Amino acid sequence: MEGKRIEDSNIVMTHVMLPQDTNPAGNVHGGVVMKHIDNAAVTVAIRHTRSNCVTASIDRLDFYNPVYLGNILILKSRLNFVGKTSMEVGVRIESEDPYSGVVRHTASAYLTIVALDEKGRPKEVPPLILETEDEIRRHNAAMARRKMRVEERMKEEKKKRIFEGFKKKT
């Protein structure tokens, strides 16, 4: 399978935050931002694989600054890592005051996205072609996060097996 460049799937999405996106104080709900993050990440994965993709997990989501009614939400999304059937997509979220032009870093997130075949099963995805030092740095950091996710999943599965064994005894 031929590799693809990271820059070929990068996206920037923008959305104006409207009254239905906010609470009574005019702050945008975190869930609204999360929905846009998910859409941005899956869109990048679809562009890379040219197939249906679904979110498997959100590894990390940190909010740094609030978003207000009328702000422009800016989502910058890019691939960091590609495995056999899954990908890590990083999303940087900014909010812009359209009147002052002030842009603030609002949040950052890492999502694991899985490509699916026509039958809804995981499918192999094109490898990444890493071209810059920044892409290599992001790729290496994503590999470290992936290793931690796999280790954590193994710990959870072990706990589950122990618990299931305990339930059978009682």
Task: Tell me about this structure.
The chain is an alpha+beta fold and 170 residues long. It has a single domain, classed as Thiol Ester Dehydrase, Chain A (Roll). The chain has a 5-stranded antiparallel β-sheet with strand order 2-4-5-6-3. A two-stranded parallel sheet has the order 1-7. A hairpin with a 3-residue loop joins strand 4 and strand 5. The longest helix has 37 residues. The model has no long low-confidence stretch (mean pLDDT 94). Belongs to the acyl coenzyme A hydrolase family. One of its GO terms (biological process) is acyl-CoA metabolic process. GO terms for molecular function: long-chain fatty acyl-CoA hydrolase activity.
Please summarize what this structure is.
The protein contains two helices and seven strands, in the order ββαβββββα. The protein is of the alpha+beta class. The N and C termini lie far apart (51 Å).
Averaged pLDDT, please?
Answer: 94
The 3D shape can be described as globular
Q: Count the DSSP helices.
A: 2
C-alpha end-to-end distance: 51 Å
Given as residue ranges, the uncertain stretches (5+ residues, pLDDT < 50) are none
Largest sheet: 5 strands, antiparallel
Write the CATH fold name: Thiol Ester Dehydrase, Chain A
Provide the helix percentage: 25-40%
The CATH class is: Alpha Beta
Element-by-element helix/strand order: EEHEEEEEH
